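Q: Could you write out the predicted structure for this multi-component system? I'm mainly interested in how the pieces pack against one another.
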Amino acid sequence: MPSNSDLKKAGLKTTLPRLKILRILENSSVRHMTAEDVYKTLLDSGEEIGLATVYRVLTQFETARLVIRHNFEGGRSVFELNDEGHHDHIVCSECGEVFEFCDRTIEERQRWVSDQAGFVLDGHSLYLYGACEGMRKSGKCSINKRKLPTILSKAGRD
Amino acid sequence: MPSNSDLKKAGLKTTLPRLKILRILENSSVRHMTAEDVYKTLLDSGEEIGLATVYRVLTQFETARLVIRHNFEGGRSVFELNDEGHHDHIVCSECGEVFEFCDRTIEERQRWVSDQAGFVLDGHSLYLYGACEGMRKSGKCSINKRKLPTILSKAGRD
DNA sequence: ATCGTTATTGCGAATAATTATCAGTGACGT
DNA sequence: ACGTCACTGATAATTATTCGCAATAACGAT
């Protein structure tokens, strides 16, 4: 879990807005948030922080690798705390719920493909889209929104 | 390669704007184009087609599965003719060049992961980012921009 | 602790990409 | 050839995000 000292390490002053935004990302029940989500959460807590600041800070956090930015379908950015190891995402197109997973076979194979192509791999983004069980059966998403399950393949995380 | 009759099949009238946009996607030397790219190409050819129409038509083409929409980093959509089989992309972060590939192992594994998560998969996006051979060695990209190489794993395409 | 420098913030305006509105036009079945 | 209705073009509207700038607050030096 990123801490205050990570801000300094990244050359960022430890200001109140940055600390508050970091805390929201850490404590939110929703793991993937848009800038607007963060902003609204701040407003609900009675904090006085401008939307532009939220955008700025999130971008700084991304540069400092404290958060990861995703561009899911639809184009708008969502941010996720970079606290656990690397993982990919499977998103329900119906209800928008997000599963996380990390599959060693896929990870290895990506490197193999890069080698074949003469590339030195330095990042990737993988998003699977589909309909989750809950939406298919009952039309209601059954996923516990609080704790996202992580599927790790036999070999564990990368 | 999509043809005029594919428009009818998709329930779209074969109008001049649609045919022209389709032709541009087929004949362009650049495989991945933004709506703006298509619009400018039209203007350069002296065609009188509104930007809004380009957006509309591209979205219709996407729905009809004549084109594929990608959301690369940065958020703006790029469109690609859906003429060959499915493939993923490996992008050089240095020179922006795009390789295409299709790896059966990854494809299969994605389906496996979806099953585990209780999802019915219906799409995915996979982008690998790295440095291509040419950029690492000579600082110049050696990839022939016209014809993108396709790496197919042993089993051939999906 | 106080002070000064300089990064940071908040606000509102600006931009970029895309979508909506709507009156006029053209494709297509009859 | 005709009438209907999907389609188009121009423009306004939206959405997401960034910019510009004056006011403010961190943090090191005194």
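A: Regarding packing and overall arrangement: Chain A has six helices and six strands.
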